[in-house]
Amino acid sequence: MKRSSLLAAMLLSAGMVFAQRSIPSLKIDDLEKLVQSGDSAYVVNLWATWCAPCIQEIPAFEKQAKALKGKPVKFIFVSLDMSDAYPGDIQSFAKRRNMRSSIVWLNEPNANSFASRIDPRWKGSIPCTIFINPKKGYRKFVEGQMSKEALQKEVDALL
């Protein structure tokens, strides 16, 4: 009885921690600094909770991130949801989808102010993904939904 109570308490507290997961709010300057620093390569996926193609590709990104755990690559999901979705709707979405990778909310109300800084060719459609390896001087922008095979190919090139 004592052992099962301890296990139940641990599971409950783990669930509560995930339910209250903090999602930082970043400006485009903060995001740029984040992915240009450190010894890691980055896979930065821009998405929104209402975007069907974004939702469809999330499992492939999460599976890839899990497979590369311990490698010098970080997966970051950048939510482009409107301010009324931050943080509650994004947190709820992440919990329902069991998302484990880092999630940030891009706190930029005007897409025209940051789109060209993401990539000059970007038209603003999502999903889109940026592959960045500062150590190799590698940067690639992919607009549109990615298959797991295309994602694997880009991650291989990144590393």
What does this structure look like?
- The protein has six helices and six strands, in the order H-E-H-E-H-E-H-E-H-E-E-H.
- It has a six-stranded mixed sheet with strand order 1-4-3-2-5-6.
- With 159 residues, the chain is an alpha/beta fold.
- The radius of gyration is 17 Å and the shape is globular.
- The chain has a single domain (22-158), classed as Glutaredoxin.
- It has helices spanning 2-19, 28-35, 52-67, 88-96, 111-118, 148-158; strands at residues 25-26, 41-47, 73-79, 102-106, 128-133, 138-143.
- Helix content is 44%, strand content 21%.
- The chain starts with a helix and ends with a helix.
Q: Keywords for this structure?
A:
159 residues; alpha/beta; Glutaredoxin; 6-stranded mixed sheet; 6 strands; disordered N terminus
SSE layout:
Blueprint lengths: L1 H18 L5 E2 L1 H8 L5 E7 L4 H16 L5 E7 L8 H9 L5 E5 L4 H8 L9 E6 L4 E6 L4 H11 L1
Parallel strand pairs: 1-4, 2-3, 3-4
Antiparallel strand pairs: 2-5, 5-6
**Separation of the first and last Cα atoms:** 49 Å
Silhouette: globular
Order of helices and strands: HEHEHEHEHEEH
Strand % is 15-25%
Strands across the major sheet, in which order?
Answer: 1-4-3-2-5-6
Please state the structural category: alpha/beta
Q: Rg, please?
A: 17 Å
How would you name the CATH homologous superfamily?
Answer: Glutaredoxin
